[in-house]
Amino acid sequence: MIPHRYAPVLFSLILSGLMSAIVSAIATFRTVGLPADFAAIWVGSWLTSWAIAFPAVLVVAPIARRLVAVLTTRSQQG
Question: What InterPro entries does this protein's entry cite (predicted)?
Answer without folding.
Answer: DUF2798
